[in-house]
Amino acid sequence: MPNKYPLWKNLLIVLAITLGFIYAAPNLYPPDPAIQLSGQSGAMVIDADVLSRVEAALDAATIDHFAGEADGEALLIRLRDKEQQLRAKEVIQQTLGGAYIVALNLAPTTPEWLRSFGAAPMKLGLDLSGGVHFLLEVDLDAALATRLESELEDAKVALREARVRYRSLEIVAAELIGQFRNEEERAAAESAIRAQSPALMPVTRAGQNPLSLVFTLTPATLKDLQENALKQNLTSLRNRVNELGVSEPLVSRQGKNRIVVELPGVQDTAEAKRIIGKTANLEFRLEADGALGESFTFRDSSNAALLQNTPIITGENVTDARASFDENGRPQVNITLDAGGGWQMGHATRDNIGKRLGVLFIEYKTKLEKSLDEAGETVLTPVPFVEKNIISLATVQAQLGKSFRITGLDSQRESSELALLLRAGALAAPMYIVQERTIGPSLGAENIELGVRSVTIGMALVLLFMLAVYRLFGLYANIALALNLVILVAFMSLLGATLTLPGIAGIVLTVGMAVDANVLIFSRIREELKAGLKPQAAISAGYDRAFVSIIDANLTTLIVALILYLIGSGPVQGFAVTLSLGIITSMFTSIVVTRAMVNAIYGGRKIERLAI
Q1: Which domain holds residue 84?
Q2: Rounded to whole angstroms, how far apart are CA atoms 364 and 385?
Q3: What is the pLDDT of residue 447?
Q4: Which UniProt keyword terms apply here (predicted)?
């Protein structure tokens, strides 16, 4: 029969439209302002007692809240008023201190039946909904100290190989200072150290002891050290953000030693803060003999062990880390080292079978200290500190290689977190969060409202034009246009794409292109009717003969959108994503859906004229 779709095709169209409404529906439910709380470590337990303390503090501060919930790993409490978020955060921080991470959040309100389908609201960019802003400061002095420690060990090796004796060799105030017995030893030491470490240069000052040597890093080395520390930290942060799955984040350098991280549309801001702000590293050290070592406590007890001062390898040698479980069901991390790290580990363990090897977990944290300002108000000041604990101390049974595992972790969450940090790359220097804030729409609420209004007015004019020019067929086009927007929003929500203001511009362009396809089809039907074809034949010819032109126009636009996505960044990519998805959905609605509606009205019937 002419102009009739088979039943299976109609059912597929209905299914696609139904799924579009389901996955677009979560965007009708605005999120609740909320406060999220988690521990500084993934092993910390947050239970009903912590929730009770938080609720009592908010009640005392007359902050309206509801639906508090704690799952053992995190706590989420919703607020009635978004304006009270910052105040609620300050109240909770003053109550609990610095042991917990308190972050602002937007809690989804999607109904359970929609969540059961995996439906979630679309992410909005910084220019539409704001996000979380972190300003981190890189501790370049710590990077300098680490480099000097390495140079100190190399200098000792050089003097030992050259058989040069010395009274002392140590680091004082970012300088390597050695004391010698006579001028001959001093001259021989200077020659050996300079040959071993070209990054060091001798410094001579007035009044300096003639039997002492003072070395400092060359200006070029110091500059490279600072630049490399910033670059490595930037790379590591970008990797961590990618692990979090944040869409269109901003990670950029600011000034000499600071990094800005902006995360749009983040749901779990506490998790983001812990992962981004944490500087965690590993050191593998052999157990020390006698008093020639440093004492560290275990994470899960007050017991201590003596480890050698110099690590065999650090987290910088880790190329891959994956969380898993051992044969007893306990969490572990499987680690793979690079070639240098594998060689060092093999060389060290080959000669120390039977001794114990310790895994030292190093965290650079911040704690909040209370003080009173001049007005007598309580002020919370972040103070950085370093925490070093042994997470594993096991006897070396055989020579280790590039692959091995770490046990002794408290929970699966902690093993996953440690694997993520190691996999993302070690930080060259500690970082501390010096500023955290939520940022509102960068273009302002008024500009956003005007943008949405302009889209609404433009669409209304297009709908009226289609009705006036193409009458009943214009109604079909308008219905297909509305369905196109629904399916487009569903696609963006399902794929986790981020909608920005340039993305809205892409939607406007999509609307025009969708209508353009129907204009081509309907104009072709009119031409076929004027040429003397019967209505049924004119409908079939109109859709078939306009199809090639529509494919050509949309395909060339899709190619341009893909190029924009590949070479663009930020807003340009947002525009390209929306435009690409819009082209695909508009092809479906403009050709398939309108044809299905026309077939339902005119298909299989004998008609004399068309309302077009």
Answers
A1: 32-107
A2: 6
A3: 63
A4: Cell membrane, Coiled coil, Membrane, Protein transport, Translocation, Transmembrane, Transmembrane helix, Transport
